[in-house]
Design brief:
The chain has two helices and no strands. It is mainly α and about 70 residues long. The longest helix has 19 residues. The relative contact order is 0.06. The mean pLDDT is about 75.
Length: about 70
């Protein structure tokens, strides 16, 4: 057996054996701990979705538009 063949086999074997030791580290997500100093969580309030045009029509919001002078609005 030649030296280059032996080196190639040793290198291939070393690479295969080194793959056994390479194990991906996996961790679980950390558990959220309640903060004793924080106030208790309040219940979420459902806010109804309203389109901008409906809100303007109903008087819920005020809208202003200005022209740029080149025919476009901002």
């Amino acid at each position: 057996m030649s030296k280059t063949g032996l080196r190639a086999r040793l290198l291939a074997g070393g690479l295969l054996l080194s793959g056994v030791w390479i194990v991906p580290a996996r961790a679980d997500e950390p558990q959220a701990r309640p903060n004793p100093d924080a106030p208790e969580a309040k219940a979420e309030v459902d806010v109804p979705a309203v389109s901008l045009l409906d809100a303007v029509r109903d008087g819920l919001v005020d809208v202003q538009a200005e022209g740029r002078g080149d025919g476009r609005m901002t």
